[in-house]
């Protein structure tokens, strides 16, 4: 499955240096592919191609861009099985989840942006001013490994719909699925230079994109620490930055909640994708009256997670993405001083597996409750009343997502008080066209739907 080229200016080309990056299957520890290790000169070529393409693409009517995105969607949808398989191989997501989420979600998002662009909203007027929405320019998109196609498509589809051109750098850990998007773009006839791919490391390619004077906007998803570095690099030239960063979301189970459902859905949310999900509800906050039952339900639920080969139909949890990630997660587990009620059980010897782990009686100020672990580790914390629950939930430097369970009005009242960009009441499902993003150190800006489109637009007032 070797992928030996970059995609620049509408062509597959060799990278500047002959260096490559090995891509590993985290379930088997085998090297499954090599991709080019791009460098700053490759970024230069990509930005030049994106800049050259910008004038035509930005002036292409939005409805026409929508039609082209529709073709891109068609070409990508024909690769849905290959997308799921590829993410299963390079990330270790169990195949069933990979089909539904790793392939299904980006396809839904791309379809949504194709439709949105194909039917553009009427231009706004305020008094004698026409309010024009114009593309920001050349966008640098830097993406992580945990939802490797979704995070790419959330940026690329919105940016292209808005009329921007893009230089994309996927994570060095999971670059393969991005190639499927570029294959689809090539097949769909996306104009040359509108979407460019430079694989490589964050330190080399990511930093070159973030600091490039020709990049008008950097759209980044990943850790808060790297987001900060990207932000600093862009600040020198006052480039626009949008950041989707970490989370430590609370799942609040109020005294009048349907406990069994709340715990089952809550554990599933925390363990989705081996817990490598920025919105994961990693803190389960439970009213004291329900607390002991919740702990035993959560421990039982965790014990039901079969860990193993992502391609085995019985597997509910795959490995973590890398040896480094497993080490990081195991460090949090071994330092924890809370009561372990699930975990430490057998996992495959080969591959970067961590057993589904649940801690009870977690101190809300402890490392376990404050740090983004990014592994299958759930912390359970008791609370006394709704006020106490809100206080504990908001005691976080993050503010990405959350859940509240209880009678609808009471749960909604609590949801409104959480300092987070999203909250699901009583297990309401993810909405791929609702705005997605964080308060506090979880980020700046919003992705998805019309709010995600607006991130890639400038607003111009024309007085007539
Ligand atoms: P990073 O934030 O470092 O990686 C995200 C992206 O940024 C990757 O494409 C990476 O490149 C790139 N990058 C790295 N350094 C730079 C830089 N200096 N300038 C520009 N881009 C850069 O995440 P990690 O993979 O290191 O994961 C570490 C931790 O981050 C995880 O344990 C987790 O807690 C958190 N995380 C959170 C995510 C979220 O969605 N909230 C997603 C991923 C991680 P490359 O990987 O190719 O080197």
TrEMBL record:
Q: What is its EC number?
A: 1.2.1.3
Which reactions fall under this protein's catalytic activity? an aldehyde + NAD(+) + H2O = a carboxylate + NADH + 2 H(+)
Q: Which PROSITE patterns match?
A: ALDEHYDE_DEHYDR_CYS (PS00070), ALDEHYDE_DEHYDR_GLU (PS00687)
Protein name from the UniProt record: aldehyde dehydrogenase (NAD(+))
Question: What is annotated as the active site?
Answer: 244
Coiled-coil stretches are: none
- The source organism is Winogradskya consettensis
* Record-annotated Aldehyde dehydrogenase domain positions: 12-462
Alphabetized Pfam families for the sequence: Aldedh (PF00171)
What's its top-level EC category? oxidoreductase
Fetch the InterPro entries from UniProt: Ald_DH/histidinol_DH (IPR016161), Ald_DH_C (IPR016163), Ald_DH_CS_CYS (IPR016160), Ald_DH_CS_GLU (IPR029510), Ald_DH_N (IPR016162), Aldehyde_DH_dom (IPR015590)
| Entry similarity comment | Belongs to the aldehyde dehydrogenase family.
* Keywords assigned: Oxidoreductase
The molecular function terms in GO held by this entry are: aldehyde dehydrogenase (NAD+) activity
């Amino acid at each position: 499955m070797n992928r030996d080229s970059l995609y620049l200016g509408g062509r597959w080309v060799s990278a500047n240096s002959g260096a490559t990056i090995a891509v590993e299957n985290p379930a088997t520890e085998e090297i499954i592919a090599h991709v080019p290790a791009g460098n700053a000169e490759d970024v230069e070529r990509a930005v030049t191609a994106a800049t050259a393409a910008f004038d035509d693409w930005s002036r292409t009517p939005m409805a026409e861009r929508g039609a082209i995105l529709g073709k891109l969607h068609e070409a990508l949808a024909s690769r849905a099985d290959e997308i799921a398989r590829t993410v299963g191989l390079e990330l270790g997501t169990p195949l069933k989840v990979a089909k539904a989420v790793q392939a299904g979600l980006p396809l839904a998002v791309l379809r949504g942006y194709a439709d949105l662009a194909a039917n553009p909203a009427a231009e706004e007027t305020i008094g004698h001013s026409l309010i024009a929405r114009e593309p920001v320019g050349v966008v640098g998109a830097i993406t992580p490994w945990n939802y490797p196609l979704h995070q790419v498509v959330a940026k690329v589809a919105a940016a292209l719909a808005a009329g921007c051109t893009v230089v994309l750098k996927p994570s060095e850990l999971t670059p393969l699925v991005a190639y499927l998007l570029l294959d689809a773009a090539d097949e769909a006839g996306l104009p040359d230079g509108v979407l460019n791919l430079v694989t490589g490391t964050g330190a080399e390619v990511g930093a070159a994109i973030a600091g490039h004077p020709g990049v008008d906007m950097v759209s980044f998803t990943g850790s808060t620490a790297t987001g900060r570095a990207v932000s600093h690099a862009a600040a020198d030239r006052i480039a626009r930055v949008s950041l989707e960063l970490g989370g430590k979301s609370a799942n609040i189970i109020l005294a009048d909640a349907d406990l069994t459902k709340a715990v089952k859905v809550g554990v599933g949310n925390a363990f989705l994708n081996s817990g490598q999900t920025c919105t994961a509800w990693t803190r389960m906050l439970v009213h004291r009256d329900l607390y002991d039952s919740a702990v035993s339900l959560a421990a039982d639920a965790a014990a039901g997670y079969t860990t193993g080969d992502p391609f085995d139909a019985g597997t509910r949890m795959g490995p973590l993405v890398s040896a480094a990630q497993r080490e990081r997660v195991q460090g949090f587990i071994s330092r924890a001083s809370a009561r372990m009620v699930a975990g430490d059980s057998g996992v495959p010897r080969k591959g970067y597996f961590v057993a589904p782990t649940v801690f009870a009686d977690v101190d809300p100020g402890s490392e376990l409750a404050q740090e983004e672990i990014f592994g299958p580790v759930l912390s359970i914390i008791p609370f006394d009343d709704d006020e106490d629950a809100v206080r504990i939930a908001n005691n976080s430097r993050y503010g990405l997502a959350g859940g509240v369970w209880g009678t609808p009005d009471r749960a909604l009242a609590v949801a409104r008080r959480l300092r987070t960009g999203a909250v699901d009441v009583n297990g309401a499902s993810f909405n791929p066209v609702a705005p997605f993003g964080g308060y506090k150190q979880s980020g700046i800006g919003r992705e998805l739907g019309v709010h995600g489109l607006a991130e890639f637009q400038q607003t111009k007032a024309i007085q007539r």
